[in-house]
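Researcher: Quick one. two chains, 585 residues in total.
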Amino acid sequence: MSLTKKQVRQIATLARLQLEEDELHDVVDKLSKIVGFVDQLQTASTDDVSPMAHPLHMSQTLRSDEVTESNERDLIQENAPSVQDGYYVVPKVIE
Amino acid sequence: MISGETLHRQTLAELAQGLAAGEFTSRELTEILLRRIESHQESYNAFITITAEIALQQADKADKARANGDGGYLNGLPIAHKDLFCTKRVLTTCGSRMLQNFVSPYDATVVEKMALAGAVMLGKTNMDEFAMGSSNETSHFGPVMNPWNTKLSPGGSSGGSAAAVAGRLVPVATGTDTGGSIRQPAAMTGTTGIKPTYGRVSRFGMVAFASSLDQGGVIARSAEDAAMVLEVISGHDHRDSTSINHPVPRYVDGLSRGIKGLKVGIVRQHFDEGLDESCAEAINLALNTLSESGAKIVEVDLPHIDLSVPAYYVVAPAECSSNLSRFDGVRFGHRAEKPQDLHDLYCRTRGEAFGAEVKRRIMTGTYVLSAGYYDAYYLKAQKVRKLISQDFVNAFCEVDLIAGPTTPTTAFALGEKTDDPITMYLNDIYTIGANLSGLPGISIPCGLVGGLPVGLQLVGPHFEEERILACAHQYQQLTDWHRLEPGATI
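Model:
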């Protein structure tokens, strides 16, 4: 299975990854190899097999709806690249 | 009197006895190991951050507690954490440029439990970027060198932890295992590495790669040491919704359970042409040792095991593409300079700060989850995962454990497999099945080939860590492979 440059550019856009033009050739080549490799899965007969999302039979645990966390905004925002008055700053979204 | 020249060679259990007997203090031990870490940093590159100040504070606190007759189970004992476990007020980089300045606001449960038990954290170990790699070469902070031969890879992704333990820089270190990242580096460095049952150790504060596969564990120099640490870090955690509420046995007390009468399964496909012949000989000798001690070796069939690597390379990248979407340049981590708009901010931030392997996995995951391909890849892989998992369930109706090689070869050269991702992925061919099925597995040293360690893997049914630790411990009572230090010959 071989992916095209156009497909890889589309995947990169979906994944929000900027790829440089000089990376692209290598990415196309290696992603094609990976997709070709996982194509082996098609050889397995999986009629009537239920998909497995979790290794153990578990149901989601619930807890009572109580406030357990304290407000640590300032501590958490120490890692933020840009904040103002407790808000995260991003480029203007609405014109 | 302390023997500073040999203290680093002692196992965790021996060090615990020495501390208890007052032969040396935790501060003395900590200072010795910190000096060793510093002096080996250039040759092994095993650490990303050395936390000397914290270590000495924790050591003094442990010594004081001991003097007062207090102190936890690991009081004063030195450890290191893979740099994927969040550590409060200490850098947690996950081996990535994305998090090179990230100072965690909280401790992972594993870190918290170790600290409460009195352990002394010497530092944060190097790793493949976001735990994606099998050679430690994808780290933003440079590759780790294998103490057995610094031209070789220590394996990955917990390569820094494995090299630090093998190089006698620290007696034990934590690791994480999504497809073999504890067991494979343990095999390649002559150390003992255990990945417990999925859900046994809390994932809270472990930077997520593939959440249905990720599991924390331990790299140590013996099964006994691994048991000591696993006992501390296991158990239910309400902060991890996939954590299992199941009693944690005293693993150390269970070590004396013998091998006699144990039914050990071997899988034909694990001995196919992919396995190096000399490694196969070492594995067969180890199986003979188990057999001579009263274990019964029988063949078991895992009909779908050949599809484990392809299934993994759909499931793991799919989960990774979802998990790593949090790195957006807004709340923490790297941010691109002068973004034109939000889309540009996301794309350049991620394009600049993720390495090539991480980008490949994110894109593979994005592809297999995208419209038109979901059924053919992701859903199909989840069904194959079910088949593989069912094979193990069936096998464990016949046997108590499954034994075989951990890796197809001994440690390979740095740079040898970086050109072809598939060759690198196939390194985990014997380990991935346990992750897909959520089973506990251990790798223990069982021989030398060309002067390099070979790993024997033992996999057990869910929650049977005690059984695999006991078998590993009994094997280590009969053999000395786990005691060999880098440079040893036979």
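The mean pLDDT of chain A is 92.
Researcher: Thanks, that's what I needed.
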